[in-house]
Specification:
Blueprint (H helix, E strand, L loop, with lengths): L2 E3 L10 H4 L4 E7 L6 H15 L3 E7 L6 H8 L2 E4 L5 H11 L4 E4 L11 H9 L4 E5 L11 H19 L11 E4 L3 H4 L8 H11 L4 E5 L13 H14 L2 H24 L11 H31 L5 H9 L2 H28 L8 H27 L7
Parallel strand pairs: 2-3, 2-5, 3-4, 6-8
Antiparallel strand pairs: 1-4, 5-7, 6-7
Helix pairs in contact: 2-3, 6-9, 10-11, 11-14, 13-14
Length: 395
């Protein structure tokens, strides 16, 4: 449970009727940042005071073992104590305690210039609902490792833009701002560094108006808490599991189509690349078709789970659900399974006709098995999707 330390500062003594009128809450996550936190809090308060912006600074102390909370309090911040470690955990606690109309996010390591707060407020006043800083063209020497600057951040931002069409230039910038009233729509949940990606993804799915502008990125003070490979993988994992289309549907569809084409190539004895293709090629095609069908089915189940149980907005899945019903899947799966059964029956009849002698119908047998397996996969996956859909409200 997060706790708020009420301190005798102008912010914490603001009467309730005036607290509502706060324009900005600057939320700063903090874990063992006694070298920097006091300077960050004072910089944020000074920036708002000089710009005439009524505001507060909320420091989300993430179970620090040094004097960070004490120094933040002395500098004029309201301190929230969040014992559960994690970048996302700290921000969720800080957001819950924030009282301003707008929330400006910034790290406690001196990497960001809090004098930029008025520019974030201007963007929000102009109608933006999420404002992102863009560090990539203004990185000071020594501020960002080369593999973050040229590999990690560009790749992860690029994947995020391809998957979710956000159009942002720096998806992991730690200085950003948003309207406090959009937080229920974002429904942020992650507790680690992937919180930065989650916010952008959720904003895109909720069709929030996203703006950005370039900011400077300075060398940090003190020791970095970031683990390049671990946190990079957590970001990538988060992107993949929140995009069933790219994780399941597209790879599965490619495998299924490719496997089907390979199977037809063998069955129809089509010469390709100057040679004919035989049994082993057909087996490879059958495996691709079966695996691809199963992966597509898992992707549809993931879409259904996200839609029915996690409140995801999924226009593509809505269109598919409106166009295709349980009965369509049962007919398709049943038809394919029946086709496989018929081919198998043909093989058995031929075996009877040859007085149970040896047969050479390997191609036909593989085709029959493939049709039967794929048909049953589609048949029962259709029932699974229907079961997941029982949670939806069709009234």
């Amino acid at each position: 449970m997060s706790t708020v330390e009420h301190i005798p500062t102008p912010s914490s003594e603001t009467p309730p009727d005036q607290a509502v009128a706060l324009r900005v809450s600057v939320v700063i996550p903090c874990l063992n940042e006694e070298e920097n936190i006091e300077a960050c809090v004072r910089a944020a308060l000074t920036a708002m005071e000089q710009a005439g912006i009524p505001g507060e600074v909320v420091v989300a102390d993430n179970d620090s073992e040094d004097r960070s909370a004490e120094l933040a309090t002395a500098a004029g911040a309201r301190v929230v104590h969040e014992p559960r470690r994690g970048y996302g955990s700290a921000y969720l606690a800080g957001f819950a305690a924030a009282r301003g109309e707008y929330i400006v996010m910034g790290d406690a390591d001196l990497t960001y210039d809090f004098d930029e707060i008025p520019r974030f407020v201007e963007k929000l006043d102009a109608g933006a609902e999420l404002v992102m800083g863009d560090r990539m063209k203004n990185i000071h020497p020594g501020a960002m490792p080369w593999h973050h600057r040229y590999i990690g951040n560009p790749i992860l931002t690029g994947i995020l833009n391809v998957f979710f069409r956000t159009g942002v230039s720096d998806a992991h910038c730690g200085m950003r701002a948003l309207r406090r009233d959009v937080l229920p729509r974002l429904d942020l949940r992650t507790t680690g560094m992937e919180f930065a990606s989650e916010m952008v993804i959720r904003a895109s799915k909720e069709k929030l108006r996203i703006a950005e502008f370039p900011i400077e990125y300075h060398p940090r003070g003190g020791e970095s808490k970031l683990s390049s490979w671990r946190d990079g993988w957590r970001h990538l994992r988060f992107l993949l599991v929140h995009s069933p289309t790219h994780l399941f549907i597209l790879p599965g569809a490619v495998m299924s189509v490719l496997g089907t084409l390979i199977g037809l190539l063998v069955l129809w004895q089509i010469h390709l690349f100057g040679r004919s293709w035989d049994l082993h090629t057909e087996i490879a095609g059958a495996l691709l078709t079966i695996i691809g069908t199963q992966v597509v089915a898992l992707g549809l189940a993931a879409h259904a789970y996200g839609k029915y149980f996690m409140g995801e907005r999924d226009p593509w899945f809505d269109r598919m659900r409106a166009r295709f019903k349980l009965e369509h899947g049962l007919l398709l799966g049943g038809g394919l399974a029946f086709g496989g059964f018929v081919l198998g029956a043909i093989i058995v009849i031929e075996w009877f006709a040859k007085d149970f002698a040896a047969l050479s119908e390997q191609r036909l047998a593989i085709a029959a098995a493939t049709l039967l397996i794929v048909g049953l996969q589609i048949f029962f996956s259709s029932f699974l999707l229907s079961i997941l859909g029982l949670r939806r409200d069709d009234r």
